Amino acid sequence: MVAATLAIHLLLAYVLDREFDHGVRAAEEAERSHQVRAALMDVLSVHRDVETGQRGYLLTGDPEFLQPYREARGVAEGTLRTLDGRLERGSPLASGVARLRELSRAKLDFADRTVALKAAGRPARARAAVASGRGKALMDAIRAQVAAMDRLERARLADRTAEEFRAHERTRTLSFLLLAGMAAMLTAAAVAIARAWDQRRRLHTRLRDAAARQQAILDSTTDAIISLNPSGSIESLNRAARAMFGYREDELLRRDVSVLFEIAPERGRAMSFADRLGLGEAGGGRTIDITGRRSDGAAVPTEVAVSPMALPSGVHAVAVVRDATERHRVDRLKREFISTVSHELRTPLTSIAGSLGLLAGGAAGPLPPRADRLVAIAHANSERLVRLVNDILDIEKIEAGEAQFDMRPVPLADLLGRTVEANGGYAQGFGVRLELAPVDDAAHVLGDPDRLTQVFTNLLSNAVKFSPAGGVVIVMASALDGCWRVSVSDQGPGIPEAFQPRLFDKFTQADGSDTRAKGGSGLGLSIVREIVARHGGRVSFDTAEGHGTTFHVDLPRADEPARPAASAAPLPRVLHVEDDVDMTRVVASALEGRAALTPAHSLRRARELVAAERFDLVILDIGLADGSGLDLLDACGRSAPVIVFTAQEAGAELAHRARVVLVKSRASIGRLVAAVDDALGLPKEAA
Amino acid sequence: MTARILYVDDEDDIREIAAMALELDPGFLVRDCGSGRAAVSLAAEWKPDLILLDVMMPEMDGPATLAALRAQAETADTPVAFITARAGRDDAERLAGLGACGIIAKPFDPMTLAAQVRALL
After folding, report:
1. What is the rounded end-to-end Cα distance, in angstroms, of chain A?
2. Same-domain check for residues A533 and A412
3. Distance between terminal CA atoms of chain B?
4. Which of A339, A351, A394 to mutate to probe the B interface, most B CBs <10 Å?
5. What distance separates the 2 farthest-apart alpha carbons in chain A?
6. pTM of the prediction?
7. What CATH code would you report for B3-120?
8. How do residues A23-61 score in pLDDT, each as one tens digit?
């Protein structure tokens, strides 16, 4: 639009300039035309004066008349020259002027001759010359020529004027159109500006409304909300924050957040608020407990959730702070209540369990068979109630951080041996056998032996409860990066996938009916997780429905990791042909420190490895994605012993061709380890 | 070997059951009483070989009773074991620090209580 307006401006200037030039030229033309016509009149008037003077002298003979005659006679040629000079180049009047000059010359000659005859005293001849009419005729011709030229000049001027008028009209129209266009454009621009301005105003209003609404929302929440710049300076805070900490907004803006919380002050390093809280960069969304500091110096327990807010100027943070005083009070009341109730429950339980125990134990003499059965049921359930109360107290204590842990190096072989032995009787009651794979005597973990016994007792008790009659529960220990992993494997039904996320929650078992059927409190795994967490370890599990479950407890090791590979003889090399990547990892971790495992996830890769390298042992799966492991059996069998580890049932023929055939399940890892030890001739360690 | 056991607990039912459980050991002579105050005077008179003291009792609790027992010449050296529903490890350590020779957790197993006590003697 700006360009169009500019173009119109330039065009208009050009048109007006041309119009001005036209005007000036038209005025000049008119002036010149007038001068031409005046010169024509001069020519005519001079010749009239000549004629008048000539006639006067001829009639009167008075030389007085010769005076004007001579004057006019003298300027006649001059008037013709003037006329000629006023004509423009190429004027149509130019030929007229030549004709006029001829007539003038003839007329003047004639007049001169008559005047000369009169002056020579021959008046009759002069009169006769005049009477001939030649002088009059010449004069008429001059007059006619002048009139004709005057008409021509007038017509020319009229033509010019008409043309100028038309040009002027065209210019006027064009100017009008251009001005109208410019006016339209200016109007459009004005409308556009007004609209943009209105839009801006509305946007501004909307932004202001949004900001006000947001502030109102922030101010109406009961949680304190503080926004911080990347280095932890306070940028904004809501009403609840001001109330919680007892400051005015201007007292806190641009101050470091350590004014409000007991955290490390900023030390000039570019350290984010999340870093300073120990949350790390990925700490967004997590809630942590920190002590806040009010303006009057009083401490406020708070829970703070920090979320990162990526802005062009860096990662800012929003901290949502909740006063945790009430929560702490309620937690304490809850713990006190649970503790009191549990202790109060123990008193009547002591009487009930004691009475039933004496009856069931025959202290009051033999009972009739049916009464004996009923007393046994009541006794078993009173004991279950005792366990439940004990578990509740335990977990409350551990969660509240009140439980004391007496940490020291614990020999794993001894701990696991005693726990397995202590639970042997319990397992027998379910027709389940407990098996402990050999544990390295040097294996020590850092922990509280009583608490760890509790952990493995709970895991064993679970494994036993979920094992089929005649099943085996295997306990084994393996070295893992910086820790010892104790695995407890059962041959039970596995954990349904839907249930897995809630596995460690309190009071859960796979379904409600199971809780009763298995007689657990539903707290066992919660206790396990809490205790292991307090040891700085972690609990995990592998499970497959129908194929059993293995729980792993990883505990920090208290011994020097055994490195037979580095110091003494190199580890025996074992090729593990298996297309299930998870299974290769499980086996690798189980054999860590015993053998150097090379996994091959396809038959093709296994063939390449067998051709290129030498192995001391091959663990071979049969059902592989790209073929059958049987095809590899003979190729391997020539150079190294083979342990077939497969999900398929082994035929008798296979048993002849391989050293050992094991049917795969999570629970059979212990047997695999034993078979590997055996095949490699490793010394068996006493449990 | 015959041993005199004094069982002190404010709960009558538990006292009765404990007495029955202890008497499963034919070598035990058991008496019981329902308060710390009664226990202090009975112990001075009866001179038991071991006193089993409930911790939480009204008026005079287990530790106070122990202190009173230690304060009187007749019972100053009598072995005392606590029997308590609060048998957490920190509780056990606190009670052991008071000079008890053992801690038995409630609820106890009546069929093995006598053996536990025998081990303390």
Report:
1. 94
2. yes
3. 11
4. A351
5. 208
6. 0.48
7. 3.40.50.2300
8. 888 888 888 888 998 999 998 998 988 888 888 888 888
